[in-house]
Write a structure and sequence with these properties.
By secondary structure, the protein is mostly helical. It has one domain (about 50-185). It has 9 helices and no strands. It has helices spanning about 1-20, 25-30, 35-40, 45-70, 80-90, 90-105, 110-135, 140-160, 165-185. It is elongated. About 30% of the residues are buried.
Length: about 190
């Protein structure tokens, strides 16, 4: 039941935004009573935050799995990795997160909940990007390049909410991959075998 409520919440956030997402609508979409919804999530804030957090964690795990599958036996490709990151930042979960961030900007209670969560996501996304790109982020220029990459990906996600810019994005990612390969310090070998 919790999973259905959380998925219905994400769907509503993506389709209707923060203002259009109501607990009544979420309950209806999930096929559960309002009482059951209130038992699991007493407020809209708690429901939305739990939903976005849960799905973001799943998405990060999915991103890692897809990267592992993509390189299994074929070696590392910066361009493929950037494509996976771009998909991550143009997904429905990014749109739902964006709705949450915008709402938190003017809602002090929501901001108190969202800020620490966003910091944790940011650290996890950075860690994951470093791992997926196979670079050494203890090297300050490489760390800045990774952060710039993540900032660019968020920009792609924002632009994608208004129109499909996948062709332009693809061209930019190809050039950006070359820039990373030429300028980022590779990570030291870990001794792992695959």
């Amino acid at each position: 039941m919790r999973a259905r409520l959380m998925q219905a919440t994400i769907d509503c956030l993506v389709e209707r935004g923060w203002a259009g997402t109501t607990t009544t609508l979420v309950s209806e979409r999930a096929g559960v009573s309002r009482g059951a919804q209130l038992h699991h999530f007493p407020s809209k804030r708690e429901l939305v935050v739990a939903s976005v957090q849960h799905l973001a964690d799943q998405l990060n795990g999915d991103l890692q799995r897809r990267h592992d599958e993509a390189i299994n036996g074929r070696g590392h490709s910066t361009r493929k990795t950037l494509g996976l990151l771009a998909d991550h930042f143009t997904s429905a979960i990014f749109v739902a997160s964006l709705e949450l961030w915008v709402a938190a900007r003017t809602d002090a209670e929501l901001l108190e909940i969202v800020q620490p969560m966003e910091r944790r996501w940011g650290r996890e996304e950075h860690r994951l990007a470093v791992e997926l790109l196979g670079v050494d982020d203890t090297h300050p220029p490489t760390r800045a390049l990774v952060q710039g990459t993540l900032d660019m990906m968020r920009g792609f996600g924002l632009a994608n909410t208004l129109s499909d810019d996948s062709r332009r994005r693809g061209r930019i990612l190809t050039e950006w991959a070359e820039l990373i390969d030429a300028n980022a310090r590779p990570a030291a070998p870990t001794g792992k075998t695959g």
